[in-house]
Design goal:
With 342 residues, this protein is of the alpha/beta class. It has helices spanning 3-16, 68-85, 95-99, 104-113, 129-139, 150-155, 166-176, 192-200, 216-221, 238-248, 263-271, 281-313, 318-322, 330-338; strands at 28-30, 47-49, 52-54, 58-60, 89-90, 119-124, 143-147, 181-184, 205-207, 253-257, 276-279, 326-328. It has an eight-stranded parallel beta sheet. A two-stranded antiparallel ribbon has the order 1-12. β10 (253-257), α11 and β11 form a beta-alpha-beta unit. α2 runs parallel beside α12 and α8 packs across α10 (238-248). The chain is globular. The model has no long low-confidence stretch (mean pLDDT 96). It binds ligand FNR. The site of ligand FNR has 27 residues, from α1, β7 and α12. Ligand FNR binds next to α1, β7 and α12.
């Protein structure tokens, strides 16, 4: 199967397999404060992606490119959204354009549509240093996402079976590209052990890409004659993975993603220790089913609702939200206890 056809399959299967599984956010409850002493108008959503100051903690995560006109149109609309909302946007894996320069347009459209915006390049951990540099240059990107997708590869019939050396390639890439590197998962979450390995390379931004939203095992299983369904319920729920990551490293930037769909999900992610939160599948769903205006309203609505939640909790900014008390129960509590995380 061609790479372009696979990209288009991913989009249609991502939309079909649905988004909502157990992120663990249902186990997290905020504690109501009757005297918050706040004013919604004074709530600031300013956040930090590493050293990069961003106007809100929401960004659009890596999805597409490399599927010809269809993905070019989606990327063009995503870039328009990101520009109007002043939020960062990541493109999907650029390996398609590295292998076939005719595909570059489907990525470069995001820089054309949003010349001054924050854009993240994206490549898998199999990339060489030169390929990683080419991805950054292609977009004049502000950061480079390097994705880890072992389970997706294992379920893909034509997928990779050799995972040796990924960490040292990540380290080399991070040492040679001239922008910060974000190491990201794609919906299976990151454990404490994984985070510690990543931090040992000097990388200080991770996107834990947890379980609970887009499910690449289900997506790839749609294309298998005999599905590897044992991987469909595999992975670390997003809420738990944020806690694992924060427990592993106090000073790194944590991007939360995987099933983030509402302002309350974002608030819980930040309260658990994330710095920013990324949406992928849900944005694609809104955009393809209801168009750009609708998606714009949805994300603007989320940003306003986030301000309401912060005000209710007595938090006037993101760092106050990160210190707000919360109660954890159910499976999430049980997991964290077994892992020695308080
Ligand atoms: C993705 N994702 C992804 N991630 C990545 O690093 N490189 C990629 O090329 C892609 N491609 C891609 C295509 C499509 C159609 C979707 C929906 C997603 C993964 C994405 O960035 C994110 O980590 C996961 O989708 C989890 O977030 P959501 O979708 O649950 O919000």
């Amino acid at each position: 199967m061609s790479r372009a056809k696979r990209k288009l399959d991913h989009i249609s299967h991502a939309l079909k397999t649905g988004q909502k599984q157990d992120t663990g956010f249902g186990d997290i409850r905020f504690i109501h404060q009757s005297l918050p002493n706040t004013n919604v108008d004074n709530v600031s959503l300013t956040a930090y992606f590493g050293e990069l100051k961003v106007s809100s903690p929401i960004f659009i995560n890596a999805m597409t490119g490399g599927g010809g006109a269809v993905t070019e149109k989606i990327n063009s609309q995503l870039a328009e959204l990101a520009c109007i909302l002043d939020i960062p946007l990541a493109v999907g894996s650029q390996m398609a354009a590295i292998k076939d320069p005719a595909e570059k347009n489907s990525y470069q459209i995001v820089r054309k549509k949003n010349p001054r915006g924050v854009i993240f390049a994206n490549i898998g951990s199999e990339a060489t240093i030169d390929q990683a540099k080419a991805c950054v240059d292609m977009l004049e990107a502000n950061c480079l996402q390097v994705h880890l997708n072992v389970i997706q590869e294992l379920v893909m019939p034509e997928g990779d079976r050799h995972f040796e050396g990924a960490l040292s390639r990540v380290e080399k890439i991070a040492n040679h590209v001239n922008v910060p590197v974000i190491v990201k998962e794609v919906g299976f979450g990151m454990s404490m052990e994984t985070i510690k390995k990543i931090v040992s390379t000097g990388v200080s931004i991770v996107d834990i890409g947890g379980f609970g939203g887009t499910n690449f095992s289900k997506i790839e299983n749609e294309r298998r004659l005999s599905p590897y369904s044992f991987f469909d319920d595999w992975g670390i729920p997003t809420a738990i993975s944020i806690a694992e990551a924060r427990n592993a490293a106090e000073n790194i930037t944590i991007a939360a993603s995987g099933g983030i769909q509402t302002a309350l999900d974002v608030a819980k992610a930040l309260a658990l220790g994330a710095n920013v939160a990324g949406l992928a599948g849900k944005v694609l769903q809104w955009l393809t089913a209801n168009g750009l205006e609708f998606t714009l309203e949805k994300i603007n609505g989320m940003l306003y609702e986030l301000k309401l939640i912060l005000a209710a909790l007595g938090a006037e900014d993101i760092s106050a939200l990160q210190r707000t008390p919360l109660v954890i129960h159910g499976n999430t509590l049980s997991w964290l206890k077994q892992r020695g995380i308080n």
